[in-house]
Design brief:
The chain has 338 residues and is α/β, with parallel strands linked by helices. The chain is 46% helix and 17% strand. The structure holds beta-D-glucopyranose (BGC).
Protein backbone atom coordinates (compact mmCIF):
# COMPACT_ATOMS: atom_id res chain seq x y z
CA UNK A 1 0.00 0.00 0.00
CA UNK A 2 2.76 2.45 1.00
CA UNK A 3 4.63 1.58 -2.21
CA UNK A 4 1.50 2.53 -4.34
CA UNK A 5 1.21 6.01 -2.70
CA UNK A 6 4.86 6.63 -3.34
CA UNK A 7 4.39 5.71 -7.07
CA UNK A 8 1.34 8.02 -7.39
CA UNK A 9 3.40 10.83 -5.89
CA UNK A 10 6.04 10.46 -8.60
CA UNK A 11 3.39 10.38 -11.36
CA UNK A 12 1.66 13.54 -10.09
CA UNK A 13 4.99 15.37 -9.69
CA UNK A 14 6.01 14.50 -13.27
CA UNK A 15 2.70 15.75 -14.66
CA UNK A 16 3.00 19.08 -12.79
CA UNK A 17 6.60 19.51 -14.06
CA UNK A 18 5.54 18.68 -17.61
CA UNK A 19 2.66 21.20 -17.59
CA UNK A 20 4.91 23.90 -16.06
CA UNK A 21 7.65 23.38 -18.64
CA UNK A 22 5.14 23.36 -21.55
CA UNK A 23 3.58 26.60 -20.27
CA UNK A 24 7.03 28.18 -19.98
CA UNK A 25 7.91 27.14 -23.56
CA UNK A 26 4.62 28.58 -24.87
CA UNK A 27 5.23 31.80 -22.92
CA UNK A 28 8.76 32.17 -24.35
CA UNK A 29 7.55 31.47 -27.89
CA UNK A 30 4.85 34.14 -27.46
CA UNK A 31 7.40 36.70 -26.25
CA UNK A 32 9.60 36.07 -29.30
CA UNK A 33 6.59 36.30 -31.64
CA UNK A 34 5.31 39.43 -29.95
CA UNK A 35 8.69 41.15 -30.24
CA UNK A 36 8.68 40.57 -33.98
CA UNK A 37 5.16 41.92 -34.47
CA UNK A 38 5.23 45.67 -33.84
CA UNK A 39 1.78 47.14 -33.94
CA UNK A 40 0.16 43.94 -32.74
CA UNK A 41 0.29 44.32 -29.00
CA UNK A 42 4.01 44.02 -29.03
CA UNK A 43 6.82 45.61 -27.10
CA UNK A 44 6.10 47.47 -23.91
CA UNK A 45 9.42 48.82 -22.74
CA UNK A 46 10.29 49.89 -19.24
CA UNK A 47 11.84 53.26 -18.45
CA UNK A 48 15.39 51.92 -18.35
CA UNK A 49 14.90 49.90 -21.47
CA UNK A 50 13.73 52.81 -23.63
CA UNK A 51 12.77 52.75 -27.30
CA UNK A 52 15.47 53.72 -29.76
CA UNK A 53 14.12 55.70 -32.74
CA UNK A 54 16.00 57.27 -35.63
CA UNK A 55 14.98 60.44 -37.47
CA UNK A 56 16.59 60.80 -40.90
CA UNK A 57 16.11 64.26 -42.46
CA UNK A 58 16.77 65.32 -46.04
CA UNK A 59 19.61 67.57 -44.87
CA UNK A 60 21.09 67.59 -41.39
CA UNK A 61 21.79 71.28 -40.82
CA UNK A 62 18.88 72.71 -42.76
CA UNK A 63 17.02 75.19 -40.51
CA UNK A 64 13.68 73.62 -41.41
CA UNK A 65 14.87 70.16 -40.37
CA UNK A 66 16.36 71.52 -37.16
CA UNK A 67 12.78 72.51 -36.26
CA UNK A 68 11.54 68.99 -37.01
CA UNK A 69 14.35 67.68 -34.82
CA UNK A 70 13.41 70.08 -32.02
CA UNK A 71 9.81 68.83 -32.00
CA UNK A 72 10.92 65.20 -32.13
CA UNK A 73 13.36 65.72 -29.25
CA UNK A 74 10.68 67.36 -27.12
CA UNK A 75 8.37 64.35 -27.55
CA UNK A 76 11.29 61.94 -27.01
CA UNK A 77 12.10 63.66 -23.71
CA UNK A 78 8.47 63.48 -22.57
CA UNK A 79 8.13 59.81 -23.45
CA UNK A 80 11.58 58.59 -22.43
CA UNK A 81 12.64 57.70 -25.98
CA UNK A 82 16.24 57.57 -27.12
CA UNK A 83 16.18 59.61 -30.35
CA UNK A 84 18.96 59.76 -32.89
CA UNK A 85 19.04 62.47 -35.59
CA UNK A 86 21.24 61.39 -38.49
CA UNK A 87 21.20 62.44 -42.13
CA UNK A 88 23.17 63.69 -45.12
CA UNK A 89 25.22 66.89 -44.60
CA UNK A 90 23.88 68.09 -47.94
CA UNK A 91 20.73 66.73 -49.55
CA UNK A 92 21.71 63.55 -51.37
CA UNK A 93 19.37 60.66 -52.09
CA UNK A 94 22.04 57.91 -52.21
CA UNK A 95 23.45 58.97 -48.86
CA UNK A 96 19.96 59.31 -47.40
CA UNK A 97 19.14 55.73 -48.42
CA UNK A 98 22.45 54.42 -47.14
CA UNK A 99 21.76 55.99 -43.72
CA UNK A 100 18.30 54.38 -43.66
CA UNK A 101 19.78 50.97 -44.46
CA UNK A 102 22.40 51.38 -41.72
CA UNK A 103 19.74 52.32 -39.17
CA UNK A 104 17.72 49.26 -40.14
CA UNK A 105 20.76 47.01 -39.82
CA UNK A 106 21.36 48.25 -36.27
CA UNK A 107 17.85 46.99 -35.36
CA UNK A 108 16.33 50.19 -34.01
CA UNK A 109 12.72 50.31 -32.77
CA UNK A 110 11.41 52.75 -35.37
CA UNK A 111 12.53 54.99 -38.25
CA UNK A 112 11.09 58.36 -39.29
CA UNK A 113 11.96 59.83 -42.64
CA UNK A 114 10.63 61.21 -45.94
CA UNK A 115 9.49 59.35 -49.02
CA UNK A 116 11.32 61.63 -51.42
CA UNK A 117 11.01 59.53 -54.57
CA UNK A 118 8.83 56.51 -55.11
CA UNK A 119 11.50 54.67 -57.12
CA UNK A 120 14.21 54.87 -54.48
CA UNK A 121 12.33 55.21 -51.18
CA UNK A 122 9.47 52.74 -51.51
CA UNK A 123 11.74 49.66 -51.79
CA UNK A 124 13.97 50.74 -48.90
CA UNK A 125 10.99 51.54 -46.66
CA UNK A 126 9.41 48.16 -47.49
CA UNK A 127 12.69 46.41 -46.76
CA UNK A 128 12.88 48.10 -43.33
CA UNK A 129 9.27 47.20 -42.51
CA UNK A 130 9.89 43.58 -43.53
CA UNK A 131 12.59 43.54 -40.85
CA UNK A 132 9.82 44.41 -38.34
CA UNK A 133 10.95 48.00 -37.87
CA UNK A 134 7.98 50.36 -38.31
CA UNK A 135 8.43 53.44 -40.52
CA UNK A 136 6.61 56.77 -40.17
CA UNK A 137 6.99 59.19 -43.07
CA UNK A 138 7.13 62.90 -42.30
CA UNK A 139 7.02 66.00 -44.52
CA UNK A 140 6.88 63.88 -47.71
CA UNK A 141 4.83 60.72 -47.92
CA UNK A 142 5.57 57.42 -49.64
CA UNK A 143 1.90 56.43 -50.02
CA UNK A 144 2.50 53.18 -51.92
CA UNK A 145 5.05 51.89 -49.40
CA UNK A 146 4.43 49.81 -46.27
CA UNK A 147 4.99 52.76 -43.93
CA UNK A 148 2.50 52.76 -41.07
CA UNK A 149 1.70 56.48 -40.98
CA UNK A 150 2.39 59.84 -42.66
CA UNK A 151 2.54 63.09 -40.70
CA UNK A 152 2.98 66.35 -42.59
CA UNK A 153 1.73 68.86 -45.12
CA UNK A 154 -0.68 67.96 -47.90
CA UNK A 155 1.86 69.06 -50.48
CA UNK A 156 -0.53 69.32 -53.45
CA UNK A 157 -2.90 71.49 -51.41
CA UNK A 158 0.01 73.65 -50.23
CA UNK A 159 1.03 74.27 -53.85
CA UNK A 160 -2.56 74.97 -54.79
CA UNK A 161 -3.05 77.66 -52.13
CA UNK A 162 0.26 79.24 -53.19
CA UNK A 163 -1.07 79.46 -56.77
CA UNK A 164 -4.37 80.98 -55.66
CA UNK A 165 -2.53 83.54 -53.50
CA UNK A 166 -0.30 84.60 -56.40
CA UNK A 167 -3.26 84.84 -58.79
CA UNK A 168 -5.16 87.02 -56.31
CA UNK A 169 -2.25 89.26 -55.38
CA UNK A 170 -1.21 89.76 -59.05
CA UNK A 171 -4.83 90.25 -60.16
CA UNK A 172 -4.59 87.39 -62.62
CA UNK A 173 -1.59 88.76 -64.58
CA UNK A 174 2.00 87.54 -64.10
CA UNK A 175 5.04 86.05 -65.82
CA UNK A 176 6.10 83.49 -63.26
CA UNK A 177 9.40 81.70 -62.67
CA UNK A 178 9.42 78.71 -60.33
CA UNK A 179 12.43 77.67 -58.31
CA UNK A 180 11.93 74.27 -56.75
CA UNK A 181 14.06 72.36 -54.25
CA UNK A 182 14.17 69.36 -56.56
CA UNK A 183 12.61 68.44 -59.88
CA UNK A 184 12.41 64.77 -58.85
CA UNK A 185 11.31 64.81 -55.17
CA UNK A 186 7.61 64.02 -54.89
CA UNK A 187 6.65 66.78 -52.41
CA UNK A 188 8.29 69.41 -54.63
CA UNK A 189 6.55 67.98 -57.71
CA UNK A 190 3.20 68.09 -55.87
CA UNK A 191 3.80 71.71 -54.82
CA UNK A 192 4.50 72.61 -58.45
CA UNK A 193 1.53 70.63 -59.78
CA UNK A 194 -0.87 72.13 -57.22
CA UNK A 195 0.36 75.61 -58.17
CA UNK A 196 -0.03 74.96 -61.91
CA UNK A 197 -3.56 73.66 -61.42
CA UNK A 198 -4.48 76.68 -59.32
CA UNK A 199 -3.40 79.19 -61.99
CA UNK A 200 -4.52 77.12 -64.96
CA UNK A 201 -7.74 79.05 -65.56
CA UNK A 202 -5.98 82.43 -65.35
CA UNK A 203 -5.38 83.55 -68.95
CA UNK A 204 -2.97 86.29 -67.85
CA UNK A 205 -0.61 84.00 -65.89
CA UNK A 206 2.28 82.38 -67.75
CA UNK A 207 4.89 80.08 -66.27
CA UNK A 208 8.07 81.12 -68.03
CA UNK A 209 10.77 79.00 -66.36
CA UNK A 210 11.28 76.30 -63.77
CA UNK A 211 14.65 75.59 -62.18
CA UNK A 212 16.03 73.48 -59.34
CA UNK A 213 17.89 74.76 -56.23
CA UNK A 214 18.92 71.45 -54.58
CA UNK A 215 17.34 73.02 -51.46
CA UNK A 216 20.18 75.56 -51.06
CA UNK A 217 19.94 79.37 -50.86
CA UNK A 218 23.03 79.72 -53.04
CA UNK A 219 21.63 77.72 -55.93
CA UNK A 220 18.21 79.36 -55.57
CA UNK A 221 19.98 82.73 -55.89
CA UNK A 222 22.08 81.54 -58.84
CA UNK A 223 19.00 80.26 -60.67
CA UNK A 224 17.02 83.44 -59.94
CA UNK A 225 19.94 85.48 -61.30
CA UNK A 226 20.06 83.48 -64.55
CA UNK A 227 16.29 83.69 -64.94
CA UNK A 228 16.23 87.48 -64.55
CA UNK A 229 19.05 87.81 -67.10
CA UNK A 230 17.39 85.49 -69.60
CA UNK A 231 13.75 86.45 -68.99
CA UNK A 232 13.57 90.10 -67.94
CA UNK A 233 9.78 89.88 -68.36
CA UNK A 234 9.55 87.72 -65.20
CA UNK A 235 7.69 89.70 -62.52
CA UNK A 236 6.78 86.90 -60.09
CA UNK A 237 8.66 84.07 -58.43
CA UNK A 238 7.41 81.00 -56.64
CA UNK A 239 9.93 79.16 -54.40
CA UNK A 240 8.79 75.71 -53.33
CA UNK A 241 11.24 74.79 -50.54
CA UNK A 242 12.26 76.61 -47.37
CA UNK A 243 15.37 78.41 -48.64
CA UNK A 244 14.29 79.19 -52.22
CA UNK A 245 12.43 82.44 -51.60
CA UNK A 246 15.34 83.67 -49.44
CA UNK A 247 17.81 83.14 -52.32
CA UNK A 248 15.38 84.74 -54.78
CA UNK A 249 14.84 87.77 -52.50
CA UNK A 250 18.61 88.42 -52.30
CA UNK A 251 18.91 88.52 -56.10
CA UNK A 252 15.78 90.61 -56.62
CA UNK A 253 17.23 93.19 -54.22
CA UNK A 254 20.55 93.02 -56.04
CA UNK A 255 18.72 93.82 -59.29
CA UNK A 256 16.78 96.59 -57.48
CA UNK A 257 13.61 94.98 -58.68
CA UNK A 258 11.80 94.69 -55.34
CA UNK A 259 9.08 97.09 -56.45
CA UNK A 260 8.10 95.27 -59.63
CA UNK A 261 8.67 91.65 -58.53
CA UNK A 262 6.30 89.50 -56.52
CA UNK A 263 7.74 86.58 -54.47
CA UNK A 264 5.83 83.78 -52.79
CA UNK A 265 7.78 81.12 -50.92
CA UNK A 266 7.51 78.33 -48.40
CA UNK A 267 7.95 78.24 -44.64
CA UNK A 268 8.50 80.80 -41.91
CA UNK A 269 12.21 80.68 -41.16
CA UNK A 270 13.58 83.89 -39.58
CA UNK A 271 15.11 85.12 -42.89
CA UNK A 272 11.80 84.60 -44.69
CA UNK A 273 9.97 86.59 -42.02
CA UNK A 274 12.63 89.32 -42.32
CA UNK A 275 12.04 89.67 -46.10
CA UNK A 276 8.28 89.48 -45.59
CA UNK A 277 8.47 92.32 -43.10
CA UNK A 278 10.63 94.33 -45.50
CA UNK A 279 8.25 93.70 -48.39
CA UNK A 280 10.68 91.83 -50.69
CA UNK A 281 8.81 88.55 -50.12
CA UNK A 282 5.04 89.04 -50.40
CA UNK A 283 3.59 85.79 -49.15
CA UNK A 284 4.68 82.43 -47.80
CA UNK A 285 3.11 79.03 -47.19
CA UNK A 286 3.23 78.12 -43.51
CA UNK A 287 4.14 74.55 -42.55
CA UNK A 288 4.46 72.98 -39.10
CA UNK A 289 7.88 71.31 -38.91
CA UNK A 290 8.00 71.24 -35.09
CA UNK A 291 4.58 69.55 -34.95
CA UNK A 292 5.65 67.01 -37.55
CA UNK A 293 8.63 65.93 -35.45
CA UNK A 294 6.68 65.96 -32.20
CA UNK A 295 3.75 63.94 -33.53
CA UNK A 296 6.00 61.50 -35.40
CA UNK A 297 7.67 60.37 -32.16
CA UNK A 298 4.33 60.13 -30.33
CA UNK A 299 2.86 58.11 -33.20
CA UNK A 300 5.85 55.79 -33.25
CA UNK A 301 5.45 55.05 -29.53
CA UNK A 302 1.76 54.28 -30.18
CA UNK A 303 2.70 51.93 -32.99
CA UNK A 304 5.19 50.10 -30.77
CA UNK A 305 2.56 49.75 -28.06
CA UNK A 306 0.15 48.22 -30.55
CA UNK A 307 -2.27 51.16 -30.58
CA UNK A 308 -4.13 52.11 -33.76
CA UNK A 309 -2.80 55.22 -35.48
CA UNK A 310 -4.25 57.18 -38.42
CA UNK A 311 -2.58 56.40 -41.71
CA UNK A 312 -2.41 60.10 -42.72
CA UNK A 313 -2.26 63.15 -40.46
CA UNK A 314 -2.00 66.44 -42.33
CA UNK A 315 -0.48 69.26 -40.32
CA UNK A 316 -1.80 72.79 -40.82
CA UNK A 317 -0.92 74.71 -44.00
CA UNK A 318 -1.90 78.27 -44.87
CA UNK A 319 -0.66 81.35 -46.72
CA UNK A 320 0.44 84.40 -44.78
CA UNK A 321 1.33 87.93 -45.95
CA UNK A 322 2.95 90.97 -44.33
CA UNK A 323 -0.33 92.01 -42.74
CA UNK A 324 -0.37 88.75 -40.77
CA UNK A 325 2.86 89.71 -38.97
CA UNK A 326 3.95 89.50 -36.27
CA UNK A 327 3.15 85.82 -36.03
CA UNK A 328 2.19 84.70 -32.58
CA UNK A 329 5.13 82.97 -30.90
CA UNK A 330 5.37 79.51 -32.35
CA UNK A 331 7.66 76.59 -31.96
CA UNK A 332 7.36 76.11 -35.72
CA UNK A 333 9.64 78.95 -36.75
CA UNK A 334 11.87 79.77 -33.80
CA UNK A 335 15.17 78.29 -34.90
CA UNK A 336 17.79 78.28 -32.18
CA UNK A 337 21.08 76.59 -32.81
CA UNK A 338 22.31 74.99 -29.60
C1 LIG B 1 10.36 71.09 -47.26
C2 LIG B 1 11.43 70.12 -46.85
C3 LIG B 1 12.77 70.54 -47.41
C4 LIG B 1 13.07 71.95 -46.97
C5 LIG B 1 14.37 72.38 -47.62
C6 LIG B 1 10.74 72.51 -46.88
O1 LIG B 1 9.81 73.39 -47.42
O2 LIG B 1 9.12 70.78 -46.68
O3 LIG B 1 11.14 68.86 -47.35
O4 LIG B 1 13.78 69.66 -46.99
O5 LIG B 1 12.03 72.81 -47.39
O6 LIG B 1 14.82 73.61 -47.20
Amino acid sequence: MRRTWWKWGIYAGSIVALVASASFTIYCAWKVYAYHQPGEGATVKTENNEYHFVLVPEELDNDYWRLVEKGAKAAAKELGVNLEYVGPRQANIDEHIHILEKAAASKVDGIMTQGLTEKEFTPVINHIVEKNIPVVTIDTDAPTSKRTAYIGTDNYYAGFIAGRALAEDMHGKANVAIITGSLTASHQQLRVQGFKDAVKQEKGIRIVAIEESHITRVQAAEKAYNILKKHPEVNAFYGTSALDAIGIAKVVEQFHREKGTYIIGFDTLPETIHYLQKGTIHATVVQEPYEMGYRAVKTMVDIRKGNDVPSVTNTETKVIRKQDLPLRPSRNYEVKHD
